[in-house]
Write a structure and sequence with these properties.
alpha+beta; three-stranded antiparallel β-sheet; 13 strands; three-stranded mixed β-sheet; 20 helices
Length: 427
Amino acid sequence: MGEYIGSQKDMTQTVIFATVQSISKDLEKFSPTDFDYLIVDECHHAAANTYQKIFTYFHPKFILGLTATPERSDGEDMMELFQNVAHKMDLKTAVERGVLVPIRCIRVKTNIDLTDVRINGIKYNSQDLESKLFIPERNQLIVDTYLKYVNGKKTVIFCASVDHAAEIAKYQPMAYVLAPENKRKLDQDMLFQGEKPEAWLDVPIDVSDYEIIDLFNWQNSVKDMISKIEFVRMVDVQSETVERYIKDGKVKPDLSIPFGDKRMFHYFREESIRNIAKQYGWDLITPQNMADKFMKFIETMDMSYSYKPVLLKAIYEYMDSSGRVALPDVVDYFIDFYEDRKAHGMIAEKSTSIYQKGGYTRKDVEKNILSNPFKRFEDMRFLMRCKDMETIEVNPIIFRKLTREDWLHIVDVCDKSLEKYYLRLKK
């Protein structure tokens, strides 16, 4: 058995394990009849362009697709490619056959109002949902229900998110809901940015540092205002610029809510944002000009590293018909791109980059993607991420307006930008 991934290009073995990205860009090295049997793991991604290139090129005698999620959220029908279902077992069937234990489900109804929670496609917005559900009294009710009905039995509690589950798991009866240290810091950072405005009741505190903060009444004041984060997404400047202007007094919020001794929530009226943008020559990003801004951003993007064009090329290679791409596929693309450069004796990146140092993990790559190239696109609302589904998506407003020629132009710009970047890096 051989591997065809990154710098490992074994074509001599009878069985070859390959990443989709690696083999799709080297199709000409294979004959269309080289493989009798094609096995595709995670085959619910098969609608993506890169997968389609492989399926169109090879002519195996048999294709086997494996997936735990055959029903795609974008409505694409996997049966058009795979035609027959060799084996399928849903939850109900598994219980009936004794593969899984019977389920006894208790739904706890509360008076929490989810009317204002945004829905991203078929999923609730995780941040909105957490702000409604991260309440100690509600967690107390969940635990009380467990103690009353199934005390001592193995139980699954469906939570709003992984973070919410971590808090419930650490609950001690008759005690406060405690979160792990990294979660407390995350919650604090969200609060400092004004991103969790409904209620903040689950940061563990003791009497020595107890501070009464009224986070309810001021919500009426900011109901029709725009937070600093949304402000950043409305203008074509970086978040650091807006933060510096606020700090220096060049930009004055219409309302600032103090948090502790040093932190503030900043809010703006829409008219104020328009005036500020006009004063400093910042362009407003609107649905009407968003696609043009996206193209201009790509054509003039600054490059401290090579990550932005690599991200765009990964999206082009893997995106489906709705402009979505699975984050694990993007991770694969990054690994293959930089490992391939190193395998050919070229510089992968700056000496400080994980790709040049080596020894990184897939989690390191994912963190790099989301913290560096993706964040800037997200700040300007060009790209979006659905954490629950582990996908990155081109803003539908942009995606609907882009033609195939536009995408080919984007790839061409990325290739030229990378060429210039690496020439500069050599000097």
